[in-house]
Amino acid sequence: MLPKWLMVSGLLCALAWFNPASAQTIQVNRENRTIAINTTDEATDTADIAAVTVGFEVYGPDYQSAYTDGGNLSQAIIDALHKTGVEDKSIESSGQSLERNFQFDHLDTPDQRAKRQFVMRQSWVVSVPPKSAAEVIRVAVAAGANKSGTIDWRLSDRKALQAKAAEAALVKARAVANQMAEGLHVKLGDLIYASNETPHTTLFQTPSALFGSAGMGKGLAPMRIPKLAIRPQTIREEATVYAVFAIE
């Protein structure tokens, strides 16, 4: 019959440090008996930042007209955001362009095409608490932002959630190691090594509002535009832990 320490050695695998450049192998012998476990678990939290896309698309018969109308619309949108209390540090430009328009509907009349020879587009990302996301969209649309509504949900303290996921995976690893030790009729000892792989972030997706470019919101008073019912998404962090336990 094989010695018990040799039976346990079949459960062992290579040990990788946090830095892949420095590898170490657990020595398998009578003096160093271990159980190695590789487990994955997760942690979730509710997003506490709403990164709202606000933007517009405006057409003109010539380069100057499109630029002038776009410039006026740009200032009106930013002013509307300022009036709601959004500071400049929370507003980031994400894109702007002024170019000739080549996309026409086959049903457009020559007069309609003449008025849409150039197109100007501009957009921003406005980062606010989730409870303010609906108001940002409402006032922006009221000011003429006809390409708005997409939300990128974020978590301000991602590292804390990653640590929570790693902790859950480590607890799971000990539970699995205990079961293995019982099956081998040995007693599980202390944790002697643990490492974790890079976590993977997942968002539980919910539909985001996206207003089209048919002039929605332009010329409307803010009080005539209802506030959307928006709820923050749940963010999931997943961690894989490699743990090595001693056998007493």
Topology of helices and strands:
Blueprint: H1 4-9, E1 15-16, E2 23-24, E3 34-46, E4 49-60, H2 63-83, E5 91-100, H3 110-114, E6 118-128, H4 133-142, E7 151-154, H5 158-183, E8 188-196, E9 200-203, E10 234-247
Antiparallel strand pairs: 1-2, 3-10, 4-6, 4-7, 5-6, 8-10, 9-10
Helix pairs in contact: 2-4
Give a short overview.
The chain is an alpha+beta fold. The chain has 5 helices and 10 strands; from the N terminus they run αββββαβαβαβαβββ.
How many domains make up the 3D coordinates? 2
Q: What is the CATH class of the largest domain?
A: Alpha Beta
C-alpha end-to-end distance: 20 Å
Give the biggest beta sheet: 4 strands, antiparallel
Order of helices and strands: HEEEEHEHEHEHEEE
CATH architecture of the largest domain: 2-Layer Sandwich
Shape call: elongated
Low-pLDDT stretches are: 1-24, 205-209, 211-223
Compute the average pLDDT: 82
Helix content: 25-40%
The helix/strand class is alpha+beta
Kindly provide the radius of gyration, computed on alpha-carbon positions and rounded to a whole number of angstroms: 29 Å
The CATH homologous superfamily of the largest domain is named: Protein of unknown function (DUF541), domain 2
Query: How many beta-strand runs?
Result: 10
- What portion of the residues fall into strands of 2 or more residues? 25-35%
DSSP summary: helix tally:
5
CATH domain topology of the largest domain = Alpha-Beta Plaits
Walkthrough of the structure:
The protein has 248 residues and is α+β, with helices and mostly antiparallel strands. The protein folds into two domains: 4-46 and 157-201 and 238-247, Translation Initiation Factor IF3, CATH 3.30.110; 49-154 and 206-231, Protein of unknown function (DUF541), domain 2 (Alpha-Beta Plaits), CATH 3.30.70. It contains five helices and ten strands, in the order H-E-E-E-E-H-E-H-E-H-E-H-E-E-E. The chain has helices spanning 4-9, 63-83, 110-114, 133-142, 158-183; strands at residues 15-16, 23-24, 34-46, 49-60, 91-100, 118-128, 151-154, 188-196, 200-203, 234-247. The strands form three sheets. Strands 3, 8, 9 and 10 form a four-stranded antiparallel β-sheet that branches. A four-stranded antiparallel β-sheet has the order 5-6-4-7, with helices on one face. A two-stranded antiparallel sheet has the order 1-2. It is elongated.
